[in-house]
Specification:
Length: 141
């Protein structure tokens, strides 16, 4: 999709909506700003994608939502309490930070991660309650 034109598979009839429900996307500015600017990770892609979606002439509405942070209990479903405490407190060792892959470590990285996880959880809850399609703008980092 370039220059605001629609892909042919969406149909050519004006008013053709692939879904009657809006696409719900969770996004927070910390998805971009929570990564140190000197990191090799392409951090600006989240903000650029949001801007591109907002500027595009799409056949179905898209709603952006701000995520709530995931809770510590959410983290403890997948990680041990010692790791969660050290992660949230910014006390991970160099090997653990290398394994995550986002260097240098940023003071806002813990909050960013909680928001990303919260966005994924919120998107899932939204689909389960309302149907349709939803997603989180970031994930996996």
């Amino acid at each position: 999709m370039r220059g605001g034109t629609l892909p042919s598979w969406l149909g050519e009839d004006e008013g053709h909506y692939p879904s009657k429900l809006p696409l719900s996307i969770w996004y927070h500015d910390l998805y971009t700003t929570g990564i140190d600017p000197s990191a090799r990770f392409p951090r600006d892609r989240y903000q650029l994608l949001k801007e591109r979606i907002k500027d595009a002439q799409l056949p179905s509405p898209i709603e952006f939502h701000e995520p709530r942070p995931a809770s510590v209990d959410d983290l403890l479903r997948a990680h041990g309490s010692d790791y969660v405490d050290r992660f949230l407190g910014g006390r991970l060792g160099d090997r653990e930070i290398n394994r995550i892959g986002l260097k240098p470590w940023s003071d806002s990285f813990g909050q960013r991660t909680l928001l990303i996880m919260g966005g994924s959880i919120s998107a899932l809850e939204h689909v389960c309650q309302n149907g349709g399609i939803s997603g989180n703008m970031a994930g996996g980092t």
